[in-house]
Model the fold of this input.
Amino acid sequence: QVQLVESGGGSVQAGGSLRLSCAASGNTYSSYCMGWFRQAPGKEREGVATIYTGGGRAYYADSVKGRFTIFQDTAKNTVYLQMNSLQPEDTARYYCAAVSGNCYTPHPGAYKFWGQGTQVSVSS
Done:
């Protein structure tokens, strides 16, 4: 069992930056696929970025490539999402999620553990 707590959301203007944090607790000695997802009003939840805590290449959705970076601090059991050049279309509630083992898919249905989410709002 893993508990996830997100933080770092807020409101910014277009072109601004935010860094989201996802602190994991519980069974953190195992390796997990950690992901960031987002859901805008009236839209389905989508995978934004994933990273395997055991190492390896990260995955990014095409819409965020070159602007967002996912990275981890293993000593703090925390995964981050650095978001640069934010645009109004990035406005959504952002969730951190995890599933044991390597990353095979960014589909939200594959992830077992979820945080409560943090709101990101980008104004034009």
